[in-house]
Design a protein that fits this description.
alpha+beta; eight-stranded mixed β-sheet; five-stranded mixed β-sheet; 19% strand; binds adenosine-5'-triphosphate; binds magnesium ion
């Protein structure tokens, strides 16, 4: 039979083991920062009823009109792979009664999203988002806090030159007047608009501002801006947000062109943008969506959130040459010669692992030289070689693989404690190397 050669689908990525440390670094940062702000993790299904996305993301958005992976299961259900995390998260908060547990409710997630887009750098068909949602507050302090959380992540990652753009797209009240003005503006050039946008003209003219087609975006350049149409309440909300951001020393720029690609937004919208990774520069996007929960549950409940594209975050970190936390390597490789020694090596590994030490031994049946080569490749911190003479003397030499230093240790029940002590001093000396530079850079030395 001919071999079946399968490649990964276009727009998807494998994260191979040697690259995982980058993901672990970034996921560690986002989770720790979210926890520090009092957000709790939530997990939701990969697919939901298509109707959920159509209702919440909006039926005139690119995501729903062009990018959704919809699947019809046997029977009659119509499901879609989640194109974003907010709709499912809000559905879960409602369905599990979490919104009855007091306000605000603050949750975060790390999940994969699926959009049928044209793949390019920073634009995939399966990508990953870190996102947060806060429900139960209409106060602009909440907007500032959520923006501050995103900013903390960007700062902790070490990213430079990321710009924060904010805008307000008002509430349904100001939106009605704005829509009328937009319709009038675009109606004059209706026959130049792309087919999709011509359809949007009646239903949702604001979506035209978000169209990626060059002609539509050129026409959109001269369109009226929402900020001129804000009602008193929305204007005050936007001004207070700016006041809080300034107080928190978070720099921003008002950009009336930001409308966001999803329909559920109201009032505050924002984006963190980098110029380092080409056209796909929006690392994080979010805003307030005061009407979404009511749309899905019937009960009004203001809320807000953001989502960060993790591939774009990692890409920017790589472009800026930033550090990722080093990959965890093997603590000890126990090489062996002969059957008895190999049994002893397995036993020692099992004991060490029970203590949380990462220990490895030969499971291939290789000679000593090949075993040591493998230990090197693993980046093992220490190694030990067991043979007949070691078994007889019940001692062996522990080798520090970095310095070549050797110490003789008992290989009976005392080995574990002795090795742990070596490991701790190894870790401490690794830290000592880094610390003086940290201090010098932060300029903290006062005496
Ligand atoms: P864009 O304007 O770049 O298409 P968007 O407005 O569609 O972004 P959101 O729906 O707000 O994006 O998603 C939040 C974040 O998820 C984006 O800021 C981006 O970092 C990331 N993201 C969105 N789509 C993709 C994709 N196809 N591939 C990789 N990351 C993505
Ligand atoms: Mg998009």
């Amino acid at each position: 039979m001919a071999t079946l050669k399968v490649q990964r689908p276009k727009g998807t990525q494998d994260v191979v083991p040697s690259q995982m440390y980058k993901w672990n670094t970034v996921e560690g940062i986002v989770k720790d920062t979210a926890s520090a702000y009092g957000f709790r993790e939530i997990r939701i299904p990969t697919f939901e009823d298509t109707a959920l996305f159509v209702r919440s993301v909006g039926d005139t958005t690119d995501v729903v009109q062009k990018e959704m992976y919809s699947v019809t299961a046997k029977g009659d259900a119509d499901f879609s792979l989640r194109p974003e995390g907010t709709a499912g998260t809000i559905r879960a908060l409602i369905e599990n009664g979490i919104l009855n547990e007091g306000f605000p409710q603050k949750v975060f997630y790390v999940l994969s999203c699926f959009r049928h887009e044209k793949p390019q750098a920073g634009r995939l068909r399966e990508f990953h988002q870190f996102g947060v949602e806060m429900a139960g507050t209409k106060d602009p302090r909440a907007d500032a806090e959520v923006i501050s959380l995103a900013k903390s992540i960007i700062d902790t990652a070490g990213l430079r030159g990321i710009k924060l753009f904010i805008n307000s797209i008002g509430c349904p009240e100001c939106r009605a007047k704005y829509h009328a003005a937009l319709k009038e503006y675009f109606a004059g050039r209706a026959d130049e608009l792309c087919d999709t946008c011509r359809g949007r003209l009646e239903k949702n003219p604001m979506r035209i501002l978000d169209c990626k087609s060059p002609v539509c975006s050129e026409i959109a350049e001269g369109a009226p801006v929402i900020l001129d149409y804000l009602c008193e309440d929305c204007r005050e909300h936007f001004e207070k947000l700016q006041q809080y951001l300034t107080a928190m020393d978070i720099k921003f720029e008002i950009n009336p062109k930001i409308v966001r690609g999803l329909d559920y937004y109201t009032k505050t919208v924002f984006e963190f943008v980098t110029t380092d990774i080409g056209a796909q520069g929006t690392v994080c996007g979010g805003g307030r969506y005061d009407g979404l929960i009511e749309t899905l549950s019937g009960k009004p409940c203001p809320a807000l959130g953001f989502a960060m594209g993790l591939e774009r975050l990692i890409l920017t970190m790589e472009k800026q040459g930033l550090d990722f936390a080093a990959e965890d390597t093997c603590d000890i490789y126990i090489a062996s010669m002969g059957d008895a020694a190999s049994v002893k090596a397995m036993q020692m590994c099992a004991e060490l692992r029970a203590d949380g030490v990462s220990a490895e031994c030969d499971v291939v049946g290789r000679g000593l030289k090949a075993q040591m080569k493998y230990a090197d490749k693993l980046g093992a911190k220490f190694s030990v070689v067991l043979g007949d003479s070691e078994l007889e003397s019940q001692t062996a030499e522990l080798k520090n693989m970095q310095t070549g230093e050797k110490v003789t240790l008992p290989i009976d029940e005392r080995f574990k404690a002795a090795f742990n002590a070596m490991l701790i001093s190894h870790m401490l000396s690794a830290e000592e190397i880094e610390e003086p530079f940290d201090e010098l850079e932060s300029g903290d030395i006062t005496d």
